[in-house]
Amino acid sequence: MSREEILEKLNEIFQDMFDDEDLEITEETVADDVEGWDSLMHISLIEEVEDAFDIRFTMVEVNGMQNVGEMVSIIAERM
Amino acid sequence: MSTVSFEFLVFFVVTLIAYYMVPHKTQWKMLLAAGMFFFCAASGPKLFCVFLVTCLINWIAAGRVHKGEQKILFVAVLVLDAALLIGYKNLNFFPETLELLGGFLGLEVHPAYFHIAAPLGISYYTLILMGYLVDVYWGKYEPEQNFFRFLLFAGYFPQMSSGPFVKYDVQREMLYQGKTIDKNRIFSGMERILWGFFKKLVVAERLAVMVNQAYDNPQVYGGITMLFALILFPFQLYMDFSGAMDIALGVSECFGIVLPENFNRPFLSRSIAEFWRRWHITLGEWLREYVFYPVLRSEGFRRLKKACKKKWGRGYEKKFDLTTYLGLFVTWFLIGFWHGGNWACILTGSGLYYWFLITMSEICTPLFTKMKSLLHINDQSRGWILWQRIRTFLLFCFGLSFFRAQDLSLGWQMWSGVLRGAKLCWMKDGTVLGLGLDGADFAVAMISLVWVLVMGVWDKARNLRPSPEKSPEESSEEKSGNLRKILWLVMLLVVLIFGQYGVGFDSTSFIYQQF
Asked: What is the mean pLDDT of residues B328-351?
């Protein structure tokens, strides 16, 4: 799976999780850019991504992801 | 040794001079020696040994638990850390709980309460050590090999008494790196210290007189005077705690070590959740990373989440995210426990009251959205934003009154006092001056308070100081600005003239130093 394909799949998850069909994420997107992406939503989002890609993030990754690009990198590395 | 004492200033200046006089590779050892001296002076040699042994145990354990090895040792040391913290700071939780339970059951129970002297900053350094151990266990970084370097990380004196909570991977480079003297940096640090002194000695100390007067005599005051005192306490606490942070961050800046910010203009928050992202930021981050997220990721919670999904279908969490609310419950219980270890703090002061507000806000969001739409409320209008800020402040004010009271019944007594004879004539007849300040001191307190808040809103306090992002030319150009020099000179004079200090004056210790 290429980075573009991962990002596309992530975009669908984000749109579904944040109930926003117009949401378009990029690798530079951070939590502040998405309305509703706060610490309460973070773990639910992480678990949706884990289920979709059949991977498991470590706690260091859960705590340390700075933007969507880092999430893409971790997924690409695991697949 | 309080950081607003003359002794501390002498200690700081001597350490600073020595720090820049010794070779670069020795500078961190100078900071270590200063930190150990500071600890001994504050707590005495016996409690210093407690700190030293705790650090040693955590350092040895970290060397063995790296990347998930020796789970039993890892858990045992975490339990030991927690036990030491509870044993020294929160032991009275148990007799208080026994007494409350006895009361509910109609039994006469009079358990003994404990009065134990605790090591300086145990509530801060314990969480810092636990965070370090967990990070090493998770494999975030390699454990520190040199015990004395590790000791400096845990016992760096500017952060000792009131925080902020620091992380090893962020601090290590700055702590051990040699520094060349930089006049701009020292000037900037000194400005921040002065700002902290102003908040504490000019504002917080005066507000404390009025707040203490009302809380110590709840039967005497009532009506709007009582409400005034209740509203003042959040401001007193903010001036006290953020003042302590300004001093800690300013002192550290002089040594070329940047500590994380703990406040971001909290009174501009539009919701309680936002408020707690802006107030005591490093504690919130610590609990999120080491309690809230790990609890939600634990096996038990994952199973519960799966069961919820099975019962209510995919996407159920958008309507009622049970696991997140339970995770929040655990986190807020611990926040309340950390802040006082008594039920007044756990239930209302800084604990489950906020959990209730945040959870209800999450659950009711769809309802609120519908109501706003029906009533044609523009939630970006100035009026609505102002209402949200006032509402958030008042909700915080209510919870905080129990934190100040440290006792549920006193908290209720204060608020029921507000309902006694609410008169507006206090503004004219000088009733408010009955709270212990004369007219001049009252005026100084109010003008200074408004000034700090306005500066905070405009963020001028920081803009007046050289920013690390600016080039040296820009910084020096800004530094040479006459306005800036005049402002800080005025500030120094105000602190010297109006500050509550000097022979015979016993400055109350910083509120967050108690934890």
From this structure: 89
Tell me what pLDDT residue B251 has.
96
The shortest CB-CB distance from B297 to any of A16, A40, A59 is to A59
Average pLDDT over residues B155-162: 93
B318 Cβ under 8 Å from any chain A Cβ: yes
pLDDT tens-place string over residues A45-77: 999 999 999 999 999 999 999 899 999 999 999
Q: What is the DSSP letter of B22?
A: S
In the block, residue with structure tokens 């009582």:
B226
Q: Tens of pLDDT along B183-195?
A: 989 988 999 999 9
Both tokens of B177, joined, read 């790196």
State the fold for domain A3-78.
1.10.1200
- Reference A39, options B496, B273, B312; nearest CA is B273
- Nearest residue in A to B286, CA atom: A63
Residue B478 has what pLDDT? 54
Report the distance separating Cα B340 and Cα B338, nearest Å: 6
| Chain A: residues touching B (Cβ < 8 Å) | 16, 19, 38-40, 42-44, 47, 58-60, 62-64
pTM summary value: 0.89
Q: Which residues contact B254 (CB under 8 A, 6 or more apart)?
A: B12, B16, B185, B186, B189, B190, B193
Question: Rounded to a whole number, what is the distance in Å from the CA of A63 to chain B's nearest CA?
Answer: 6
Amino acid at B221: Y
Distance CA B477, CA B459 (A): 20
Write down the pLDDT at residue B482: 72
Of A44, A58, A59, the CB nearest to B321: A44
Q: Is-contact B36 B160, C-beta < 8 A?
A: no
